[in-house]
Amino acid sequence: MREQQGPERQVPAQQVRVLLADDHPVYRDGLALLLGSIPGVEVSGTAADGAQAVELAGELQPDVVVMDVRMPGLDGIEATRRIVTDSPHIGVVVLTMSEDDATLFAAMRAGARGYLLKGAGQAEIVRAITAVAHGEAIFGPAVARRVADFFAGPASDETVFPQLTPREREILALVAAGRSNQQIASALFLSPKTVRNNVSNIFAKLHVADRAEAIVRAREAGFGR
User: Rounded distance, CA 26 to CA 135, Å?
Assistant: First the structure.
C-alpha cells in the first residue's frame, strides 16, 4: 500500500472535510445528509462522476474523498490515481458495490487508503473516513480478510512456480480468477500488449498449451481464490 508522501497534513480533531463522489444521486445525497449530521464531519462538496471528483478535489482540497468505482466517463480508480498524484495528502476511501479482487487491488494500487462495500454501517463509514484523514489505511472486515488471504496465499509464496517473476505470478493469479487480458491490464495499469507478453511467458514457463490448462495448473496450486 502506498505511503503518504510529503509532510503529514495535520487534520483538526474536531473537523474532517469530505468530498463525496457517486453517480447515483439518491445514494450520494443520502450519504451527504448522513455524514453532515455527524459531529466532526463536514461535507465540503459532491461529485457525480470521476472527472468532477478530480476537479473538486483540486479546488476544495478536502481531507478525504469517498469514491465510488463505477461512474460514467472517468471511473473511480483513475480518478483516485489522479487525485492522489496531484494531492498526496488527500485520503481516498472507496465505497462501492464491487466485491471482486481485481477492483479491490486496482483501487489499492491507485492509492486508495480505504475500501468499503456499500451496505457498510454508519459507524464503519465514519471510522474509515476519520482513520484515512489521519493517514491510516482501513478496510471493511470482509475486504481485510481477502487482502490478508491474497498476501498469505500461494501468489506471494515463491516456492510455488518459482520460475515465474513476481509480475508473472500476479498476472497468473488474475488469470486463475477468470480475468481477461483486458481486465488484467486495467487492474494492474498495464498495456494489453504487456499483459499478452507476460501471459505468453507464463504459458512457456509452465509448459501449458493454452489458457484453460494454465488455469487448471494455477488453481491446483491455490491461485485464483
Answer: 30
φ and ψ at residue 66, rounded to 5 degrees: -95, 115
Q: For the chain, give the number of residues.
A: 225
- Say whether 149 sits in a helix, a strand or coil: helix
Q: Please state the pTM of the whole predicted model.
A: 0.63
Within 8 A by CB and 6+ apart from 175, the residues are 184, 199, 202, 211, 214, 215, 218, 224
Identify which of 113-117, 134-138, 203-207 has the greatest average pLDDT: 203-207
Closest C-alpha to 108, from 58, 144, 152: 144
Rounded CA-CA distance 165/136 in Å is: 30
Which comes out higher in pLDDT, residue 82 or 135? Answer: 82
Q: Which of 67, 44, 47 is nearest to 55 (CA)?
A: 47
> For residue 2, what pLDDT is reported?
39
